[in-house]
Design a protein that fits this description.
The structure holds 2 protein chains of 2 kinds. Chain A is an alpha/beta fold. Chain A contains 8 helices and 9 strands. In chain A, helix 6 links the parallel strand 6 and strand 7. Chain B is mainly α. Chain B has a single domain, classed as MetI-like (MetI-like fold, Orthogonal Bundle), CATH 1.10.3720.10. In chain B, 33% of the residues are buried. The chains are: A alpha/beta, B mainly alpha. The complex binds adenosine-5'-triphosphate and magnesium ion. Adenosine-5'-triphosphate binds next to strand 2 and helix 2 of chain A. Magnesium ion (MG) binds next to helix 2 of chain A.
């Protein structure tokens, strides 16, 4: 009886903690995440038909995770969404006309400029606004958001792997993107850093409200973070699972573990068939 | 000055200040031993004059103004030749590193010219220019051109393509991409080229001045040889060594200033 009452209570507190911040963000930036619609998307490299007709709608602000075995075309899909490669057939559309600054990608490697201080690296993310007056304060704000304000004048080479990745996140966030795509951004991190980065990702996503697309190898990570998990197989979306667990989510809970198991079984059975 | 030096892992810069003195201990000890050997007659002064004699000869030449004039002439030739050859090499390196068309057009030709030792051109250069200033400048510029060209080209071609893609994603224009990503990325390699080029610069100048000149350090040494002034010959050689060291130090300093981001240059 006691516990049953307590649980919703802590959750309400948690929401109360997050919401005012989220509301503030929403005020200074009316437009939030962009919806994303993909129709019959195809992509081949020579004879290798990687994507064979992807159909997908992602509502604005949703957190989607994409899993699938290595080489199934996850990165390819992400690069197409980010406009880094040419589409062979089909279409990708964002709800309204998106500016280049609205769509950002984060890779497994931080890709920081070694010859620029941390703050200038973050300023790179401003795109065309790099030269504007408020470039400094905006970059500083993004750095504060990832908890690295005190590293602003360091060279990237002295940062740890996790810190570099946080700088890369700040750089992706500084233009206040409306779609943020992640290609295994935590793949190279140790287990503990990974978990704290996952929390950070979830927090900035909730604060800023962008549409998030996360490619990952780690099904547990997908289930812990996403509203929805997509499995790609043979160039198509083979499985589309909704994660209803309320946030903040309890890692290793029975509900999440069950979902993780069913997605893993799906991936493995596909592996057995081939 | 070797390729090993360009491996960025364990370069011994950023040394504590005391080491600045340590490096001079060995030359000093050599001079002292040399002086003693000369004084006790171990080395005949006709073969190698004592350091004190060399210093005396230097002092006399300094008073007559001859030394300063010759050093200045050599220094001027070296720098102008370096500037001309270096900037042309840098320009070709940039062009061929950035443009496929330019590389296809000129790289093969340049690689062929590179295989001719530039000092082999001395007879031809004397026929063309006589023993004029332009002969020396031409030879120095030609010698300096290749290390700078090759290392600039190599530096630009080996800039991390992931960084270039990152720059494009974040909307950098071509100019911005060059300024923020490509040039800084190529700079360590360009410096390797500069240090090679400095060595070649002195070598070329000495040879050219020895063979075809009417002023400069090399000419001074040749004149001294004719009058059997061995102390002046040794003095010229020592000055070359000092100037070479000076050029190298200057390039190190520049390197440390511009490559402060590089882990090898960070003070720990
Ligand atoms: N630029 C390219 N040229 C040729 N083939 C490519 C190219 N990029 C990807 N491919 C091929 O497309 C297929 C899918 O690659 P992709 O990188 O999208 O896989 P992935 O799902 O991200 O794999 P991983 O989980 O290992 O990162 C692979 O077979 C790969 O060889
Ligand atoms: Mg991939």
């Amino acid at each position: 009886m006691q516990t049953a009452l307590l649980l919703p209570e802590t959750e309400r507190n948690e929401r109360a903690r997050i919401t005012p911040q989220a509301r503030r963000r929403r005020e200074d930036r009316p437009a939030l995440g962009l919806p994303l619609t993909i129709r019959n998307l195809r992509k081949s490299f020579g004879d290798n038909e990687v994507l064979r007709g992807i159909d997908l709608h992602i509502p604005a602000g949703q957190f989607v995770a994409i899993v699938g075995k290595s080489g199934c075309g996850k990165s390819t899909l992400l690069r197409l969404i980010a406009g880094l490669d040419k589409i062979d057939a089909g279409a990708i559309s964002f709800g309204e006309a998106a500016r280049p600054e609205d769509i950002r990608v984060m890779f497994q490697e931080p890709r920081l400029l070694p010859w620029a201080r941390v703050l200038s690296n973050v300023e790179v993310g401003l795109g065309r606004d790099r030269a504007s007056q408020d470039a400094h304060p905006r970059a500083e704000h993004a750095l504060t958001e990832v908890g690295l304000a005190d590293k602003r004048d360091q060279w990237p080479s002295v940062l740890s792997g996790g810190q570099k990745q946080r700088v890369a996140l700040a750089r992706a966030l500084v233009s206040q993107p409306r779609v943020l795509a992640f290609d295994e951004p935590l793949g190279a991190l140790d287990a503990l850093t990974r978990i704290s980065m996952q929390r950070l990702l979830e927090r900035v996503w909730r604060d800023q409200g962008f549409t998030a697309i996360l490619v990952t190898h780690d099904v547990a990570e997908a289930v812990a973070l996403a509203d929805r998990v997509l499995v790609i197989e043979e160039g198509r979306i083979a499985h589309d699972a909704t994660v209803n667990a309320p946030r903040p989510r309890e890692r290793g809970s029975v509900e999440l573990a069950g979902l993780e198991g069913s997605i893993l079984r799906h991936l493995l059975s596909a592996d057995d068939r081939t | 000055m070797s390729l090993i030096d360009s491996i960025p892992l364990r370069r011994s810069f950023g040394l504590p200040r005391a080491d600045g003195l340590i490096q001079w201990i060995v030359p000093l000890v050599i001079i002292v031993i040399w002086q003693i050997a000369s004084v006790i007659g171990l080395v005949p002064t006709r073969v190698l004059p004592a350091p004190s004699d060399v210093a005396l000869a230097g002092w006399k030449l300094l008073l007559s103004g001859e030394l300063v004039r010759n050093i200045w002439v050599s220094f001027w030739r070296a720098s102008i030749g370096f500037l001309i050859g270096g900037s042309i090499g840098f320009a070709f390196g940039l062009a061929n590193g950035l443009s496929q068309l330019s590389a296809k057009l000129t790289d093969t030709t340049l690689q062929m010219v590179r295989n001719v030792p530039h000092l082999a051109l001395i007879p031809l250069v004397i026929l063309w220019f006589g023993i004029d200033e332009s002969a020396k400048l031409f030879l120095v510029a030609l010698g300096v051109f290749f290390p700078i060209y090759l290392n600039t080209l190599h530096g630009i071609r080996t800039v991390d393509p992931q960084l270039i893609e990152m720059g494009r994603i974040y909307g950098m224009s071509d100019g911005e991409l060059f300024r923020r990503v490509i040039f800084p990325g190529a700079l360590p390699s360009i410096f390797v080229g500069i240090r090679f080029a400095l060595g070649i610069m002195w070598l070329t100048l000495i040879v050219a001045e020895t063979i075809a000149a009417s002023s400069g350090l090399g000419y001074m040494a040749m004149q001294a040889r004719e009058f059997m002034l061995i102390d002046v010959v040794v003095l010229s050689i020592l000055i070359y060594a000092l100037l070479g060291k000076l050029a190298d130090t200057a390039s190190h300093l520049l390197e440390r200033l511009t490559l402060a981001w590089h882990p090898a240059f960070q003070k720990r």
